[in-house]
Specification:
2 domains; about 220 residues; alpha+beta; 6 helices; Trna Endonuclease, Chain: A, domain 1; single chain; about 30% helix; four-stranded mixed β-sheet; disordered N terminus
Length: about 220
C-alpha cells in the first residue's frame, strides 16, 4: 500500500502474519515493531528482536514471520496451542520454527515439552526442524552487524550505483573506509557498502563488527 502513486511514494508495510495479538506497551519488558521485507512484525522482548535481526541477516533466509500457531497433544491426548516466536523459510525450501527464550527460563520441564512439540511438528511435516534461540545464540559481532544491516537497508539509488561502480573496479581487498572514500558520499557511501555486504557482493575477510577498518573481499560472481 502506498500513500500515493508518484515516484518515490512512501509504501506502508504489509500487516503482520502473527496468529495472535499482544499489547504494544509493557512496563516489564521490551516490545518492538519491525519492518522486514516490507512486512510488519511484532516482537515481545529484546531477545526476540535481536534473534529476528540475526536470522534475517543470515545467508539463505528468504522470509521470517512471528507468533505462528502449532497445535500439539500431550501424553493424555489433550490438544494444546503453542505459538512459535519466529519461523524462518530458507532458500533451499526448508522451514524452521524457533522458540526464543532467555537461558534462565529454559527449565527442564520446558525443554521436555518442546521436545514433544518438535517431534510432532517434524513428523507431521509442519516444520523441518524446531530450535531454541537464546541471548547466547549470536555473538556480539553478529548482533551488531545484523542491526547495522537493518539500519542501512533503505536503498539510495545514486549512491548505490556509485558504490557498485567502485566495487566493480576493485581488486584484492579494501576496507569499508577506503570504499567509502572512493564513493565520496560520506555516511551514505558507508551505508551503500553495508548494503553490498548484505547482498553478498562483498564479504568481510574475518568475522568481526563491520566498521570503517573492516577488510572486505569482492565475491567472484560480481562483475
Amino acid at each position: 500500500m502506498s500513500l500515493h502513486s508518484a515516484p518515490g511514494a512512501v509504501r506502508l508495510p504489509e500487516p503482520s502474519l502473527a496468529h495472535r495479538s499482544f499489547s504494544p506497551r509493557s512496563k516489564g519488558h521490551c516490545t518492538a515493531d519491525v519492518v522486514i521485507d516490507g512486512r510488519r512484525l511484532h516482537l515481545e522482548s529484546h531477545t526476540e528482536l535481536m534473534a529476528l535481526l540475526c536470522l534475517w541477516a543470515s545467508p539463505g533466509v528468504v522470509a521470517v514471520r512471528e507468533q505462528q500457531l502449532y497445535e500439539w497433544f500431550d501424553h493424555d491426548g489433550v490438544v494444546h496451542e503453542h505459538f512459535f516466536d519466529l519461523v524462518a523459510d530458507f532458500a533451499d525450501g526448508t522451514t524452521v520454527a524457533y522458540a526464543v527464550r532467555p537461558v534462565a527460563r529454559l527449565s527442564l520441564r520446558y525443554r521436555k515439552e518442546m521436545e514433544i512439540i518438535r517431534q510432532q511438528a517434524i513428523a507431521e511435516g509442519a516444520f523441518d526442524d524446531v530450535r531454541f534461540l537464546t541471548e547466547r545464540s549470536f555473538d556480539a559481532a553478529t548482533r551488531h552487524n545484523a542491526a547495522l544491516l537493518q539500519g542501512s537497508r533503505h536503498p539510495d539509488p545514486d549512491v548505490d550505483a556509485a558504490a557498485r561502480d567502485v566495487v566493480r573496479g576493485m581488486s584484492g581487498t579494501a576496507t569499508i573506509g577506503d570504499l567509502r572514500g572512493r564513493i565520496g558520499r560520506g555516511g551514505a557511501g558507508f551505508r551503500a557498502v553495508v548494503r553490498l555486504v548484505g547482498a553478498g557482493v562483498l564479504a568481510p575477510l574475518r568475522h568481526e563488527r563491520l566498521t570503517s577498518s573492516t577488510l572486505l573481499l569482492k565475491k567472484d560472481h560480481f562483475q
